[in-house]
Each structure stands twice: as C-alpha cells, then as structure tokens.
TrEMBL record:
Keyword terms, alphabetized: Hydrolase, Metal-binding, Zinc
Protein known as: allantoinase
UniProt keyword Hydrolase present: yes
Gene assigned in the entry: allB
Required cofactor(s): Zn(2+)
Domain Amidohydrolase-related span(s) in chain numbering: 54-425
Pathway assigned in UniProt: Nitrogen metabolism; (S)-allantoin degradation; allantoate from (S)-allantoin: step 1/1
Enzyme nomenclature, EC number: 3.5.2.5
InterPro entries on file: Allantoinase (IPR017593), Amidohydro-rel (IPR006680), DHOase/Allantoinase_Hydrolase (IPR050138), Metal-dep_hydrolase_composite (IPR011059), Metal_Hydrolase (IPR032466)
Domain of life, per lineage: Bacteria
Pfam family, one: Amidohydro_1
Recorded GO MF terms: allantoinase activity
Keyword Phosphoprotein: no
Source species of the chain: Streptomyces yaanensis
Self-association state and partner proteins as the record states: Homotetramer.
Length: 445
C-alpha cells in the first residue's frame, strides 16, 4: 500500500468507476490511493472500517445563503456549516446576497471572509454578485478568487441587491465572458411576473399562479440566446419549470455553454401537498406540481439538468408569515438535502452513484473545484459515511441551522449520515462536532 496515515474501509465505496469494496488510503488530508478492500495496511496507519455503510465523497453545495455578517440572526457561518456537516456536505459556496454587505466588491468579499474564518466547520467559498452598477468590480472580484457571479433578472427580495435589466445583463455578461468567468442567474422574467395575478394571502394555489412557468421559460430562453451570441458561460440557478427543459436540451445539443441546477425541494415536494399558509414551503421560483417534478427527474437522468444544490435560504421564523405574498421566500435544506434526494431517487430507481454525481461531482466541476467531488487519488479526503437503508423522521429540534423552520418536518427519510470527514479528519459523528477546521477556498485559475 502507498503512503497512508489513515485507511478508510467499506464494502461500498463510491468511486468514479463504480461502487465497490475498497480501502481508501489517506495522508496529509489527501486521498493517496483507492485499493482493494483487503489490501495490507502500512504499519502505523489507523484503520476505520465502516462495514456495509457507504463511503461517498463529501457533497459540494454550490448554492447556500449564509447571511453572515449583517443578517446573522437569519443564518451564520457557525450554524450553517454545522448543518451542512451533519448532512454530509463538506464544501459550500456562499451566495453574494442576504448578508450585509453583499459580496459585490473586493472590500465586501474581505468582510465576508472575516465573518467566516474560524467559524467554518466545512470548506467555504464565495460567489460574487453582478449588480447594475458594479461592472468595474467584477474583474477585481474574479482576481480575488470568487467562483463566479450571481445576477437576478427580476427583483431579488432585498433592496441592496437590485436585478439586471436586459441591457445591463448584456454588459455584465460581456465583461465576465471577457475574463473567462461564470455568470450564474436567477432566471425569472420580471415582465411575466408583473402580468401574473398577484392575489396574495395564504392560498398556495394563488402563490403558484403569481410565479408562472412562463416567467422562468422566457428568462431561460433569453439567457441562452445571450450566452450563445456572446459565447459566454452561464449557469441557470434553481430551475423549477419543466417547460424550460426542451430549450435547455436544444441549447446544450447546439454547444451553448449552459449548465443547470435544481433543488431538493423541487424534486421531493409538490404543490399539491403544500398546506395553505405554510410559507416554510415558499421559495422562488416555486415548488410546482407532481407532473412537473417527474419531468425534472427525467432531465436529471438524461443530463439536461446537471446538478442538485440546496438553495438553503433561511430567515427568522417571524418572517415566515402565513401570507405567501409577503413571507420570506427561501427553504432551509442543508442538513436534509442528501437524505431527501436519496429517498426520492431510490423510489424512482436511481442509485447513490447518481446522487453523488448530481450533488458532489458535478457541483465541484461547476465551481472548478478540482480537489473535490470524487474518491480518487489526489483529491481531498472529504467523505460522508451513509447508512442508506436506515430511516429517520425529521424532527426540527435536531436541525443545526439557526432557525429551525423546515418544509420537511415529520417526513420519514432514507439515509442516515453516520459521520462526515474533511481532509482526513472526522468533523462530526452522531451529532458530536469537532472545533471548526474548514478552510476558505478561492477559485483556482
Ligand atoms: Zn438562492
């Protein structure tokens, strides 16, 4: 066996070549080899044998709103990264808005990094923000190591992060494409939203009608057309409308550089089951009907949708009123994302290998995180140990995120995370956490 301080064994290790019994050798926080299960252990190496529990690469969640500093009462780095670690996530990339300041200048990025340091239980990176008036800040932010830039095509929900109109979208996209960066976009068209019925109140059907599919479809269509024209790389955030899938599939077939994510709540919850007044289910774009969900799963299976991320976007409980028009929009999913997706994936005949591809390998690729997203030599020794056939019932009191509001309360889910490992160190096991040892990541050139 090659160099190893630690050997992790399981009869089911998820590797890029398939799931098999293996011994994973770790030294200096890095995977040094993936060997047969019964390979000889070098003297002095510690062995952890997980038996039939599955060893999978730590998940990489590229869509998380931590809100720290500024709205830390909504969510902070300490609580968010504990929730993530408890759910098998070892890397997150923080969204540029809902914290104060937003991550839209190099100074603001510094402020964010200072807020995160020493509180991060997992590795944390940052997206920058593209605002109407910060085109001059994009290149410096890129050089300072943000992973790309988020923009909204419709109002974001917070005043300090205005959306881009078509002209400003083009200007930002041109700038970002000029230095080879990535633009990630909340794609809902403001004109279609403005003409949709805005009933307000507690009825979920009214909320759904206020965020129609065609608002997403037209925004995605426009984004694809611009990406093609400017030869830019774009990523569609939190796709909900299945009607946009043919446009995306066609663009990909044509070679347009577009990638797409969806979220656990679109894949596991349906409009039909949302109780009126239950704004813990509110997010934008909204959770849609069961038939829509079936098509999202098909698109994941055929690669039209690339990856699954949480869009964890909490607030304090008092902002989750029973009026869907005014309640805060955002679902808190960090700790439960793996179990929620796995539960539905297994019901639909997918394997854990697929879940790993959607939630770790592809998200790492999206962000250019070459050291994450797979169990193979040369990558960081980041793992989750999962009992995939064991179930648990979601108890909000057991969640680690700051405000224990959840759309999953009372659901029985498959997949218990036994422990999570970051660069060869066990950072949580059975609800016991070590001191934070996460690093702040920057984009590699
Ligand atoms: Zn978001």
């Amino acid at each position: 066996m090659s160099d190893a301080e630690l050997v992790l064994r399981s009869t089911r290790v998820i590797t890029p070549d398939g799931t098999r019994a293996a011994s994973v050798a770790v030294a200096g926080g890095e995977i040094t080899a993936v060997l047969p299960y019964d390979a000889d252990v070098p003297s002095g190496a510690r062995v952890e044998d997980f038996g039939d529990d599955v060893l999978l690469p730590g998940l990489v969640d590229t869509h998380v709103h931590v809100n720290d500093p500024g709205r830390t009462e909504w969510e902070g780095f300490w609580t968010a990264t504990r929730a993530a670690a408890a759910g098998g996530i070892t890397t997150l990339i923080d969204m540029p808005l809902n914290s104060l300041p937003p991550t839209t200048t190099v100074d603001n990025l510094r402020t964010k990094r200072e807020a995160a340091v020493r509180k991060a239980h997992i590795d944390v990176g940052f997206w920058g923000g593209a605002l109407p008036d910060n085109v001059k800040d994009l290149r410096p932010l890129h050089d300072a190591g943000v992973f790309g830039f988020k923009a909204f095509l419709s109002p974001s929900g917070v005043d300090e992060f205005p959306h881009l109109d078509q002209e400003r979208l083009e200007r930002s996209m041109t700038e970002i494409a000029g230095f080879g960066g990535l633009l990630i976009v909340h794609a809902e068209d403001p004109h279609h939203l403005a003409t949709a019925p805005q009933q307000g109140g507690p009825r979920y059907a009214d909320f759904l009608a206020s965020r129609p599919r065609d608002a997403e479809d037209r925004a995605v269509e426009h984004l694809i057309a611009q990406a093609k024209r400017l030869d830019a790389r774009v990523h569609v955030l939190h796709l909900s409308s299945s009607d946009a899938l043919p446009l995306i599939a066609a663009a990909k077939a044509e070679g347009v550089r577009v990638t797409v994510e969806t979220c656990p709540h679109y894949l596991t919850l349906t409009a039909e089951e949302v109780p009126d007044g239950a704004s813990e289910f509110k997010c934008c774009p909204p959770i849609r009907e069961a038939a829509n969900q079936d098509l999202l799963w098909q698109a994941l299976a055929d690669g039209t949708i690339d990856c699954v991320v949480t869009d964890h976007s909490p607030s304090t409980a008092d902002l989750k009123t029973d009026d869907f028009a005014t309640a805060w929009g955002g679902i808190s999913g960090l700790q439960l994302s793996l179990a929620a997706v796995w539960t539905e994936a297994r019901r639909r005949g997918h394997g854990l290998q697929d879940v790993v591809r959607w939630m770790s390998t592809r998200t790492a690729q999206l962000a250019g995180l070459g050291r994450k997203g797979a169990i193979e030599a040369g990558r960081d020794a980041d793992f989750a140990v999962l009992a995939p056939d064991e179930t648990f019932t979601v108890d909000p009191a057991a969640l680690q995120h700051r405000n224990r509001v959840t759309a999953y309360a009372g659901k029985t889910l498959y997949g218990v995370v036994r422990s999570t490992w970051l660069r060869g160190e066990r950072i949580v096991a059975d609800g016991e956490f070590t001191e934070p040892r996460g690093r702040l990541l920057t984009r590699h050139p």
